[in-house]
TrEMBL record:
InterPro entries: Polyketide_cyclase/dehydratase (IPR019587), START-like_dom_sf (IPR023393). CDD domains: SRPBCC_4 (cd07822). The lineage of its organism: Bacteria, Pseudomonadati, Pseudomonadota, Acidithiobacillia, Acidithiobacillales. It comes from Acidithiobacillus ferrianus. This is SRPBCC domain-containing protein. It comes from the Bacteria.
């Protein structure tokens, strides 16, 4: 197994961040890594995702939703070929912080017999894609908060 994990703190509520993550049709407008996402975020459902790490070609796949906990976590499982060959469990986790911010954890757990073959060639681009998406999510959530298009959070 191999894991890539990134984190960013966002000056917005988990509700605000979650609403952006769940607005799949808007992904092409702001998301530099997951260029499109469609489907229903409900366990057992299949999504259609197109990812494009920087300077790589786009890949479209059909992951199955494993978990969709409101304002907490979205997790899916994507596979290359058959189960156990190259599987990726992708997740977004939101943690409310005491200052009204949200800690956004974005990661993926890779498993399968081909992980060792592929991971070295894809790890840097994948991690860079996660970091770019995290920054874009932060900009979108905080920008809308500054513009007054959402309620400001009370400071603690």
């Amino acid at each position: 197994m191999h894991q890539i994990v990134t984190e960013i703190d966002i000056a917005a509520s988990p509700e605000r961040v979650w609403s952006i993550l769940m607005d799949f049709p808007a992904y092409p407008q702001w998301n530099p890594f997951i260029r499109s996402l469609s489907g229903v975020a409900k366990p057992g459902e299949k999504l259609r995702a197109t990812i494009q790490p920087e300077e790589r070609r786009a890949m479209t796949f059909r992951p199955r939703v494993l978990k969709a906990a409101d304002q907490q976590e979205l997790r899916w499982l994507g596979r290359l070929g058959f189960p156990g060959l190259f599987d990726g469990q992708h997740y977004f986790q939101l943690t409310a912080l005491s200052n009204g911010y949200t800690r956004f954890t974005h990661g993926e757990r890779f498993s399968g017999i081909l992980v060792g073959v592929f991971i070295s060639s894809m790890e840097a681009a994948t991690k860079a894609g996660f970091v770019a998406m995290n920054a874009a999510l932060k900009d979108r959530a905080e920008g809308e908060a500054r513009d007054g298009s959402m309620h400001s959070e009370p400071s603690h």
